Predict the structure.
Amino acid sequence: MSIINKYYYNRLTLFVVLTIMGFILLSSCAKKANFLVSSVTPAAKGSVKIKKDNNKNYMIKIKIANLAEPSRLQPPKSVFVVWMVSNNANPKNIGQIKSSSNFMSSKLTAYFETVSSVKPNKLFITAEDDANIQYPVSPIILTTGTF
């Protein structure tokens, strides 16, 4: 085997090993889950990204497209509330989502970010009359599977 072939195979092996390590590192940094299709708002599509930060808290980022205003639902509601389920406990209200239209688009979008000290197992969104509600009352608008 010539020196050029050994050099080529060594570089190829190094490239493959580094690529695999990169995928492992990237996949362990953040978990991403899509919301399941909703019968209440079938056009809404969204995803949740959960990442553990340096303080061992969980950064939760939600992005949703085509989410109708809560006042347009039947029956009309005031706000979208995000709920988190962790460790088989009762759902916890972690905040409210406000939807908006982009300046150059008629597509309704919604963003939500928060930090939790507890690892979420599941997230879901309901449309409620009050943003400070302690337990979900309305049907689920969007939900993730279990993380």
Q: What stands out?
A: The radius of gyration is 21 Å. The first helix runs from residue 3 to 29.
